Amino acid sequence: MVRPYGRILLKLSGESLMGSDQYGINTVVLNTYASQIIEAQCTGVQIGIVIGGGNIFRGLSGAGKGFDRVKGDQMGMLATVINSLALQSAIESKGGKVKLMTSVNMAPIGEIYSRDKALQLMTEGYVVIIAGGTGNPFFTTDTASALRGVEIGADVLLKGTRVDGIYTADPEKNPDAVKLDRLTFDEVYRQNLKIMDLTAFTLCKENNLPIRVFDMDTPGNLMKIVSGEDIGTLVTR
């Protein structure tokens, strides 16, 4: 089988890990994600993962409640580490090979992130989860995923969400929203579509890193993408 991608950066949202719960990590969703990741890795594709922390704590919303913004963002970084540890454990429990790296020194929880070490681990057949965002306040995990995707030379940034692509409006709020299968970066700017924050999106555009937005909650979708099926919405130059 000819793979369309040799290396991917998978961005998962913390909110998606909640499933139907109001807070925390839904183990059914977690294990479904782990199974999909292992299935995709078995095709030979190299996988890096960045996970958000919004199911536990979001720095920006914390700042709105009186937290110092820097401290709030640091709390959000820790939330991503909790989610990353959970995913690591789920993948390992299913027999997958996975390593956790962190953007700030958190030994023995995970090894400090190094681009070269991450690439080495991927070559050795490990899924590499990169936790802790960028390691800096004022940057989202969307920006972290764009940054890590560019650093590791990913062929595509896969943004796994609860919807099956990019729409002209929020499909959960507007029944008249229309799904868009392909877009250019400039079209996203012109239509003011909310895919990810502007810093992350611009980083992808400037470094020619395509973005594919897809429904990660449907089992088998990740495998379809790495097998070459055109699902979700693809954003390119």
Helix and strand topology:
Layout (H helix, E strand, L loop, with lengths): L6 E6 L1 H4 L9 H15 L4 E6 L7 H6 L4 H25 L4 E5 L8 E2 L2 H9 L3 E5 L9 H11 L4 E6 L4 E2 L11 E2 L1 E3 H7 L6 H9 L4 E5 L5 H6 L6 E4 L1
Parallel strand pairs: 1-2, 1-6, 2-5, 3-4, 3-5, 6-10, 9-11
Antiparallel strand pairs: 7-8, 10-11
Helix pairs in contact: 2-4, 6-8
Could you characterize what this model shows?
With 237 residues, this protein is α/β, with parallel strands linked by helices. It contains nine helices and eleven strands. α2 (27-41) crosses α4 and α6 (141-151) runs parallel beside α8. A nine-stranded mixed β-sheet has the order 4-3-5-2-1-6-10-11-9, with helices on both faces. It has helices at 14-17, 27-41, 59-64, 69-93, 115-123, 141-151, 185-191, 198-206, 221-226, and strands at 7-12, 46-51, 98-102, 111-112, 127-131, 156-161, 166-167, 179-180, 182-184, 211-215, 233-236. 39% of the residues lie in helices and 19% in strands.
